[in-house]
Amino acid sequence: MNFTGIVIAAATFVTIGLWHPLVIKVEYHWGTRPWVVFLVVGVACIVAALFIENMIVSAAVGVFGASALWGIGELMKQKRRVERGWFPMNPKRKNEYRNADSK
Length: 103
Known about the structure:
Blueprint: H1 4-30, H2 35-51, H3 55-83, H4 94-102
């Protein structure tokens, strides 16, 4: 039996499950500024995946990197969700949301 596909699927499921709340927490505490960190992590993971010989580890690292890159767009969407009232706003960063409304 070959469990490679199932292991990669599980790694993908866990990775996406980790990134979803991470994006919400990052936007709440720091806004959209950390998008650069997501970019660096994503590109670094994808490049690293090219050099990892173990197929399962390479796939998991690549999925993590792709999820980091996807997280950039989700971070921007999360800000809009907060502005619409779908998610709680960080009261310490209220001015950031008011400035976005005036643009």
